Amino acid sequence: MAAEDRDGARERARTAAPQSRTRLDQPRSPRRNLLPEWDPEAFGRLSEKIARFLGTGRFIVWMTATIVVWVAWNIFAPERLRFDSYPFIFLTLALSLQASYAAPLILLAQNRQDDRDRVNLEQDRKQNERSIADTEYLTREIAALRLGLGEVATRDWIRSELQDLVRDLESRLPSGPERAEREGEGPRRPA
After folding, report:
1. For residue 47, how many other CB atoms are within 10 A of its CB?
2. C-alpha–C-alpha distance, residues 21 and 30, integer Å
3. Is the pLDDT of residue 21 over 70?
């Protein structure tokens, strides 16, 4: 009976719809993404440009001029041409919208700058470590050279030793008439 059950299960497995098997030796096919795709670097560069402009005096001047013109227009223009009366609700909404976009763009630009600073600090730290290692190596080499030079005869030391030997030899040599006799001339007699 068990053999018949096994044969039946095999037959059912063959006739059943083939199951999709995941192959681990091949990459998956990419899924369709419903969200728009963008280059994060390009978006980051754009946000940095905007943040740089928002931090300039030019932006403040333009923003101030825009607000002054807006308020002046809505106060002094004829009634039918005014689009934002006294409490300036539309102006407040426009400034809030501008601020709500400016804040995340500025934060994104700051995060990118922090990342660049972190990379620069890491490179500086590695460079400092190499400089310290090189300095320590050179210090050890100079110390080894000094120790080695302590054993080497210098020109001044040789000169002083030779001068000492000359003085010693001069002191051992006989003076005046004794020297002449030794050299074979004999003593000089007055004529």
Report:
1. 19
2. 17
3. yes
- Asked whether the whole model's pTM tops 0.70, one would answer no
The 10s digit of each residue's pLDDT in 43-74 is 888 889 999 998 899 999 999 999 999 999 99
Separation between Cα atoms, residue 74 and residue 95, nearest integer Å: 16
DSSP state of 184: T
Measured between alpha carbons, how far is 95 from 88 in angstroms, rounded to an integer? Answer: 11
Q: Contact 97/76 with Cβ under 8 angstroms?
A: no
Give the integer Cα–Cα distance in Å for 159 and 70: 96
Report DSSP state, residue 81: G
Helices (H), the chain: 2-15, 40-54, 57-76, 89-150, 155-172, 176-182
- Residues 82 and 74 sit within 8 Å (Cβ to Cβ): yes
pLDDT tens-digit series, residues 159-191: 999 999 999 998 888 766 666 666 665 555 555
Report the C-alpha gap between 189 and 191 in whole angstroms.
Answer: 6
